[in-house]
Request: fold
Amino acid sequence: MPVNRQVVLASRPDGEPVLQNFRLQQGAVAEPKDGEMLVRVRAISMEPAIRGWLDDNDKNYFEPLPVGGVMRALSIGQVIRSNLPGYAPGDYVRGLMGWEDYSIAGADTVLLQKVDIAEDMPLTHYVGALGGSGLTAIVGLDAIGRIKPGETVVISAAVGAVGHVAAQYARHKGCRVVGIVGSAGKAKVALEQVGYHAVVNYREAANLEQAIREACPEGVDVYYDNVGGPTLDAMLNNMKTFGRIICCGMISSYNRSDDPPPLYNMWQVVARELELKGFLLYSYGDRLPAALATNLEGIRAGWLKPIENKRVGIDQAAELFCELMSGRTTGKSVLEMDLPEQVG
Amino acid sequence: MPVNRQVVLASRPDGEPVLQNFRLQQGAVAEPKDGEMLVRVRAISMEPAIRGWLDDNDKNYFEPLPVGGVMRALSIGQVIRSNLPGYAPGDYVRGLMGWEDYSIAGADTVLLQKVDIAEDMPLTHYVGALGGSGLTAIVGLDAIGRIKPGETVVISAAVGAVGHVAAQYARHKGCRVVGIVGSAGKAKVALEQVGYHAVVNYREAANLEQAIREACPEGVDVYYDNVGGPTLDAMLNNMKTFGRIICCGMISSYNRSDDPPPLYNMWQVVARELELKGFLLYSYGDRLPAALATNLEGIRAGWLKPIENKRVGIDQAAELFCELMSGRTTGKSVLEMDLPEQVG
Reply:
């Protein structure tokens, strides 16, 4: 009889999550009710945003996950049984599902959609460069950044899931692309694999604001902010007049939502007439098909080379998430599920 | 022989400006060169923005004023002699001129424009409700706030030069208008003279964020920010999803540009998908005629009642500016010049 392996929240993290905050348990495979379907989860997208759902406060855009509840993530899976019109066994679906072998999905599943898997693309790309993070990169640069050829674009978390796709797209569009990273190893990846024109290592810079100025002497048109905090602060003093800041994530706050790092340079928003705009992909549904087409084309044409930090097996899930939140990873962190016994 | 009384910067303020930072001196009346004109200054607009020009740093949008230099402000005056094509004696002009009886203006004078003074309007309104602050209120709410009937609009520095005009316009447009003020006296003015639907006194509130929540239980669509700092921070936690923040001024930073107050809640920009946009009227020239027409119509129709904090005489200039920067004033601070002997 098939079992359903699940990762649950054992306790709330205090700051950076640790393995002990999670527990692997076995449960029964649920039966889909009317309007539901049973999905075999194939790949799970590990994202910093998940960290926010683990705190018990009202500061986030989802309800807090209860202790003992099954961890959630944007995942891709294959329909096993369906009582939901329009979905049939064998279909690939993406949506907010559990960290588990078998998940129940329904019409109210967040971001549920059918996904066509191109034959020449690995499945994991559909929770990476062809999934939320990859499309976030494109939509952010287009809809909020409004990038133009010749502009200077700075990207923080430069070799992260969003950053490394954003950089390749901005470069493809004719921008000068400067990355901000936190290690020499990442700087090397940024320059050699991703194709940044210049890189600033914020851990090595004696004065981050000055280091960015040296990398962008003419100022910055568009800042793709994935980190917030002191990096955003240093960027505010480096923007050109009418600069745009895509506020996509503030990972500097995620591990410490009750004690976020302060910002001091907001006056520059007035003085330089900056635009800061928060941005969750969920709100830009009409732009997703074009963004997907862009990245598919990019991978095939070679201007977009996705980087994946992949682990295999549900017993690796908690470790992968903790590694992600420690800031040590490069590219898109994705968990490929080991294949459980298939249900009926 | 006519003299030119001038107020110069005697020393740089350390924090809040004091009278000793300024000096009244007498000079000769200059002769306009080719392309210049001699203007008799009639009314001077006192604005918090001036404070920023007095610090010797690169954090502002104008060059720092040198010590010993004549203080500047947006002023309205009358042309005495003109060597500038298109301008004739008797014309009223507005532009960045000195705190002095007679100023030289030319084609490169910042914001120089001819002004038609309506017969039924006092001259001082043209540096107030019909000048920079009044038009800033309208353009900010229209171009950045994009206010709609039924929306909740919060305005800080609620009875200030910009705030009291913004409030009356937003109310006229069918919004619910909530003001943030710093004294019981201002709260009274806000409710009784300006017409705010509700007021929060940030000095009396034990918890500003909570006090705003009680005044705006449904959340805030548009925040007209004139102060920055802790008030902006409290507002970030009170915005509705997709809320817009008009970043018009950050007076909380002006007296302490090297030690601005920190912000902690920027994560809400992402979580609530907020838009913050800095805004200087200088960049919205195409919107000025319509905004002026709006406020003229408003004053005549009665829905806009300008409040002026007026003093008369150049020997009052420094005191008026210091009073403004102390945060004690209500309405638009304007200096009406006493009339010097007229030049030739």
Notes: Chain B touches chain A at residues 52, 59-61, 228, 232, 237, 242, 247-250, 253, 257, 260, 262-280, 283 (CB under 8 Å). The radius of gyration of chain B is 20 Å. DSSP finds ten helices and 15 strands in chain B.
